Amino acid sequence: MAEWGGAAESDLKAAGAEALPDGRSGVRLRGWHIESSRRPILGSLALQEWEEKLGTSHLPEMVFGESSLYLLHEDSGIKLHFNAFDALKGWKQESLPPVEVPAAATWKSRSKPFQQVILDYDYTFTTPYCGSEAIEPNTEKAILEDGCCSLCWEDSDQRIDLAALSSKEPILFFDEVVLYEDELADSGVSLLTVKVRVMPSCWFLLFRFWLRIDGVLMRLRDTRVYCPFVSDHKSMPAILRESCWREATIQSLSAVCSCSLYVHEGFPSDSAAYGDPNLIGQRLPVITHKTQRLKVSRSITGG
């Protein structure tokens, strides 16, 4: 269930926010409509349709295909959307080589017990997906004309204002949505989630792919998106996105690290030490990192 972060009705009113009606999970504030939805795991027929559309015979064990989070800036029509289908499209397109694990072939043999399984795909379902963006054409108040504008992410030197996120503001809305999960036959976890937090001064979200293969590998792909509210909500929103890919083998994490000042014993090789990505994430080496700003590009049409 979505949480209202302890926010009283008075906090919502003081911030000029309102909860969504009809039991929907979300909030409207400063020109933004922010809504999350959680739905059951896709059934077999829906999974078959997804396999056909994606061109694959492999999907995670648990796909919450109708669960999502979207954030719509009503005056501009800018919409950010996070969903499992687009994430799996990214997985299919990137097509990382499968992690070399001797037991991995038996993990996926559960669906074909009498056939030899050849791992020729990324069974971890690692995705480069950082969210979807669009200009909503049917937004009544949208100031961007459909067909004349497009959205893109450009590199930026700006950083997300962490001080603003650590302030003592009330949390007006919070939710965490699971998009898909695979337990790798009890040998680890592959998990894709999105968390959102809305405060009187801003909204912030963490989109996370988390992989742990027990005794072998840890991989963390985090995307943080931040948008401060401005006094004139009709102005174009300033949206920053930071994406970071971290990864390390369990062997390297558990190794002894020494220098002239101290000797640090690495993490234990026991997989129980790696259950929380929040605790272990900062120990993982950075593979790639980039900060971007959402830009509206206007096309020039002849008169």
From TrEMBL:
UniProt-listed GO biological process terms: TOR signaling
Database matches in InterPro entries = Phosphatase_reg/MetRdx, TIP41-like
List, alphabetically, the GO terms of the cellular component aspect: cytosol
The organism's place on the tree of life at top rank: Eukaryota
Q: Which residues form a coiled coil?
A: none
Q: Which family does it belong to?
A: Belongs to the TIP41 family.
* Protein name as catalogued: TIP41-like protein isoform X1
The organism of origin for this protein: Phoenix dactylifera (Date palm)
Q: What is the lineage of its organism?
A: Eukaryota, Viridiplantae, Streptophyta, Embryophyta, Tracheophyta
Q: What gene is behind this protein?
A: LOC103723689
